[in-house]
Amino acid sequence: EAQVTQNPRYLITVTGKKLTVTCSQNMNHEYMSWYRQDPGLGLRQIYYSMNVEVTDKGDVPEGYKVSRKEKRNFPLILESPSPNQTSLYFCASSFSGTGVYGYTFGSGTRLTVV
Amino acid sequence: AQSVAQPEDQVNVAEGNPLTVKCTYSVSGNPYLFWYVQYPNRGLQFLLKYITGDNLVKGSYGFEAEFNKSQTSFHLKKPSALVSDSALYFCAVRDSGAGSYQLTFGKGTKLSVIP
């Protein structure tokens, strides 16, 4: 089944403790992206990747890092999480970044930073 | 800069009645427009898109949307609402002429279909 898989689905952590949210897709998509969803703010893009070793900042990149060493994986790294990063996170992928194709989204990771 | 607005936080409609979820956009070039739906505790699912061609676009689950360039709108419609259509709906836009490949989402509209 074609899908985007995120792990974990739920995570509670403490301020300052480094964490990684994994994202993997099995569709050989070139484009991958991370979004956060907050009430009243919709989805905001954190980082995106056009292909392996090609990443760029989205609208809200502060406090996050990403890497794209393999085509299928696009982990989101929070080096020192803070409470304002409590949010629902989605990974998405697309055949290309041209925007012509729709995105496939993962099921989400609900992160709570205390 | 590209932007998208969903003017209604919530839309309530009776089962069997037609539904409309509104979306307006702003881009400097030509728009690529999308609708996504999010069910509780799920990721977003693609419904339909407008890239070019016919202004009326048909998508999944009986939904359709009409691209109106003069009004810069892309409203989502369905002739007869089902209770199972109750969900959060997002409109998204990308400026085809922009240098970046960002897809900008609206804040979402919660649709409640009342039995």
What features would you highlight for this structure?
heterodimer, A: 114 residues, mainly beta, seven-stranded mixed β-sheet, 11 strands, 50% strand, B: 115 residues, four-stranded antiparallel β-sheet, 12 strands, 52% strand
Run of helices and strands of chain A: EEEEEEEEEEE
**Overall body shape of chain B:** globular
Q: How far do the termini of chain B sit from each other?
A: 41 Å
User: Could you give a short account of the major beta sheet of chain A?
Assistant: 7 strands, mixed
Describe the model.
The complex is a heterodimer of chains A (114) and B (115). Chain A is mainly β and 114 residues long. Chain A has strands at residues 4-7, 10-13, 19-25, 31-38, 42-51, 54-57, 65-66, 76-78, 87-94, 104-105, 109-113. In chain A, the strands form two sheets. In chain A, strands 2, 4, 5, 6, 9, 10 and 11 form a seven-stranded mixed β-sheet that branches. The model of chain A has no long low-confidence stretch (mean pLDDT 93). Chain B has strands at 3-5, 10-14, 19-21, 24-26, 31-38, 44-50, 56-58, 64-68, 73-78, 87-95, 104-105, 109-114. In chain B, a hairpin with a 4-residue loop joins strand 8 and strand 9 (73-78). Chain B is globular and about 45 Å long. Classes of the chains: A mainly beta (114), B mainly beta (115). The interface between A and B is medium-sized, with 28 and 23 residues.
